[in-house]
Amino acid sequence: MSDPDYQSITNALQRLDTAADAAECHGAISAVVCLLGATGFDTWLAMHFPQLQAAAAQGDALAKEAQALLSALYQSVVDELGNGRFSYHLFMPMDDTTLEERADALGHWCQGFLLGLRYSGVTDTSRFSGELAEILADITEISQVSSVALDNTEEEERSYAELVEYLRVGVMLFNETLQARKEPPGSKSVH
């Protein structure tokens, strides 16, 4: 299966009448991948969508389709964060959607990232220090932003793009830092 697009994930989740959206899923998956790597999909799915997993196991075609799309999205994040080419990107609505929709999705992405940390066993974010603590504080703040007061100016578009880029780089730093801590002493990683 090729990498899923934002709309296909959104449609699959809507057909299942879930409260989560594609951006939230991607944020949660991103955090889980940073902490658990390629093996965290089942953990994430069981925590984020326990009903989906059960329905897919019972043969529900819509649930199976959504699970396959989410699995492909998870693998896509694993590949992007693990390839060393800085190809990771946030899963957001297309630029032709309104700024309000994209800003809401950005807030949902951040909420998902924070959920993903919990799914991965992080109950106390004070274990992160320095740049990682700053990134988490910013993610927490962005998760609470409302798009109600946006004026759709060029400046706000630029600010949105800067936030997306900041989060993209922040997740790559998060992943690199946590993966470096997992390497056995004396091992050398090739970047």
Write up this protein:
The chain is built from 8 helices and no strands. With 191 residues, it is mostly helical. Helix 1 (6-15) packs antiparallel against helix 5 (61-82), helix 2 (22-36) crosses helix 5 (61-82) and helix 2 (22-36) runs parallel beside helix 8 (154-182).
Give a brief rundown of this model.
With 191 residues, this protein is mainly α.
Looking at this protein, list some descriptive labels.
globular, 191 residues, mainly alpha
- The amount of beta strand, in percent, is under 5%
What is the total tally of β strands? 0
Overall mean confidence score, pLDDT: 89
Oligomer class: single chain
Indicate the low-confidence ranges by residue numbers.
187-191
Instruction: State the major sheet.
Output: none
Question: SSE layout and pairings?
Answer:
Elements: H1 6-15, H2 22-36, H3 41-48, H4 50-57, H5 61-82, H6 99-119, H7 130-142, H8 154-182
Helix pairs in contact: 1-5, 2-5, 2-6, 2-8, 3-4, 4-5, 6-7, 6-8
